[in-house]
Amino acid sequence: MKNSMIKLNIAITILMIYGCANNKTSMMNVKDTVVLDQPAVSCNGNDRYFNFSMAQILKKKGDLTSAIKFMRKAVELDEKSVYLKTELAILYLQNRQNVMALDVLETIIEQHPHHIKSLILFAKIKQGMGEIEDAKKAYENVLERDPEQEDIYLLLGDLYLGNQDYNNALKIYKKLVNHFPNSYPGYFFIGKVYSHKEDLDKAMNCFEKALEIEPDLIEPHFEIIKLYKKKGKEKKTVSIYKNILEKNPESIRAAIGLGYYYHENGMKKEAEKLFKQLGKRSETDPVVFKTILQFYINSNRFDIVKTVSEGMLKGAPESSDIHYLTGIAYDKTGEQDKALEHFKKVFPDSKFYHNSEVNISFIYMKQGKIDRAIDYMQKVVKKMPDNPLLLFYLGSFYEEANAFEKAEATLNQGLELDPDNVNLHFRMGVVYDKWNKKEKSIEKMKQVLIIEPDNAEALNYLGYTYADLDRNLDEAEMLVKEALKYKPDDGYIIDSMGWVYFKKGLYQKALLLLLKAVSIVPDDPLILEHLGDAYLMTNNKKKALETYKNSLMKKKKDTAGLEKKILELTKEKTKE
Known about the structure:
Serine Threonine Protein Phosphatase 5, Tetratricopeptide repeat, mainly alpha, single chain
């Protein structure tokens, strides 16, 4: 289904804090065992070195599409060169063409199963695409062929740890320390595994071993604190916090941790003293803010942030930074009125002033006060008229208010500033869809896919739209299948696939997929209605009626069609 894409589901706070960032995977530490023979430089288009050189020049200029064309030509001229193929795969990866990169790497691995760089690239792409089981197998393959790849033990162990497969994680980390007896991360992560398994004594031994190897690192101390907390050792916990602060009085994390520990254990005066000191310090030391952001905001530990920041405000009551953090924490815990109170105390000269105004706008929208939300966002846009992101937000607010002409004009204003902005194009497609301008919506989604061919949301939206219009069903199936390559466990995309099969008359296949979609997204009324339709077409009227009623309980508007289905089935049941 495309419904999830229609709703405004924006991670505002994180966007506000970070802006945009690129996450680049470094491959530079992996040695390539294949050497490229380098012929004399020439300007001959049929010369592999010329094409390779052109690709490298264009890559440096940021023109990855043209670089790929030259690198493909180089590969055509020297099909046996593993180096060239690997460079082509890297270019595809940098251009976000993961599937193309995988195709090249699979060819290399098939011909050269011991080429470690390709195996590692393949595994990392699989991991990035969320295909974790394939990534695990690929990393295991790397270690079988080259047990000296220290980083791979850590990557593989982390996958097992992330899946809470502690036994396999333990095996991998133990192999790591067998190969590298002085591996600090090996002992550290073995300690983490034992801690998860509640084998606290073994965990303690491993963290202490990690400290023997790297005595100046602070992280094992915090892990030992966690163990003492689990054991209820109050004095030991406080003692280690104090030891950290004696060795490193600048440790904001230790000061926050100790202050919150005091607060939790009823030592309010001690906590208040520490928090006040942190508040005063935050006015001149940006590390205080960064530490709260890194260890508490990013970890969604908003209750801690509320306690700490409220305490810090007693030491720095006029601090815009602290009011901003406190506002985020209250917003995230659903206390919107308190969030508004703090956001409104962020001064105009603060670097967070505009962010606070945006957050205020979104809170009003969440409270159903869409006119106030629009009014606030308009003021922000007037102050920063050349910011496409703010125009995106304002356009989305107009969309929420069904003011489609204003939404279109505002999003177009953003596109004039940033013509290739995928989010603006996508949002415009959603607006046209809600406006019942289906053809324009389809064209917008096609534009998104021209700019970003692997955009799963646009692939899904376009495929679902075709299915809903009962046309181009083969193309719809292809589009949604492509979306599933990138997001195989997305319940909304699985629903789209089920809906395509439903429209094709493949009701049993549709039913199986729609059941899977509901298992992932159990409370979405449209997915439930689709499932009811599939039950009806597979002659399970009892289940259809039950599912329609469940959908109606969750549906807030446009219920007439669903009520009609329920009424018809109820009448049939009465006749029986």
